[in-house]
Amino acid sequence: MHQAALLGQALTDSRKFGWECSQQVKHNWETMTEAIQKHVGSLNRSYQRALREKAVAYVNSYGEFVEHHKIKATNGKGQETYYTAAKFVIATGERPRYLGIQGDKEYCITSDDLFSLPYCPGATLVVGGSSVALECAGFLAGLGLEVTVMVSSQLLQGFDQEMAEKVASSMQQLGVRFLRKFVPVEVQQLEKGSPGKLKVVAKSTEGTEMIEGLYNTVLLAIGRDSCTKKIGLEKIGVKVNEKTGKIPVNDVEQSSVPYVYAVGDVVEGQPELMPVAVQAGRLLARRLFGGRLEKCDYINAPTVVFTPLEYGCCGYAEEKAVEVYRKENLEVYHTLFWPLEWTVACRDSNTCYAKIIYSKFDNDRVIGFHVLGPKAGEITQGFAAAMKCGLTKQLLDDTIGIHPTCAQVFTTLEITKSSGLDATQKGC
Fold it and tell me: Catalytic: 403?
């Protein structure tokens, strides 16, 4: 869906490059979702096929511990089967959270629903400031829909906040409207339909102000709840954070019960990212059964927020780096940049942004990498590997850039935040 939105922007840009569209181009939601669901279905089937090829028994049942080393599995017909094992891995993931207000479960959808929604959602209110919230808001706006984001506190909590605000600014340029410091208190259905019409009543988080708005769809992306309840963990003594439902583990993914391990989004204090879960699971299997010792590196886990203008990062956010290393021990290099493909299209020259954070007393090692720009995911993946190898500012300076790419900006960073010099670029 992110790609669908990018193609729409490319169509707009193409006119400046001489492409003449003789007819009005419009987007067909049904065609897109049908193609995407076919692809997702093929992925599911390929995973099941891979399990069979590796002689892994796939049991489609609800599992819960009944005693130490023993679980009960209940299938869709209510039939129960019991299994015993020496070791267990909990990887049950999370499910979208609801607000707990009048009308939320009756009339709102979640991000899980959006990807298979059989009709175009129309004017949409996205509730939440998470990466999922901004990604959904971004591609809906990119498809030409009217989009509003309502957020109660910070955008992209846990990410670098300077970058988060720049992401928001780039989305505002696309027409996304932000309602800050408000939370919905009631959702009413005014008209049924596909989509229908909804009225949302919201309250300020800083006072008594109330606002109302009309939308076709309300999408909740306020976080996800760990699926750790009702699986019998309390029967065998596995400690679970009562507030979050997450499982505290040590540096080898071991819970408070030595034979029970956990990976993925159910783990407390670790990035909620699919590739992180995959890596942690791989390394756990190798340690348990392959005689290996490598542990998962959760600090240098690269990630990308797939907003229309992508934000990629690896390592520390600037706020976290200051907390861990102290401000006087850090240097921050940054610059705005103007991608070549944006020049002829005359898109804004001061939207894309690059930033690195390095530790002065660790050989100028890069401890934080941040980029807002086209294909930020592709850029970040390469630099993440370099950071695993101990990337330093000097090594970046010694690297010859590939012209004309966005990534080359990291080989010529000269402006530090402490210098106070202007990092803006001249545009059209």
Answer: yes
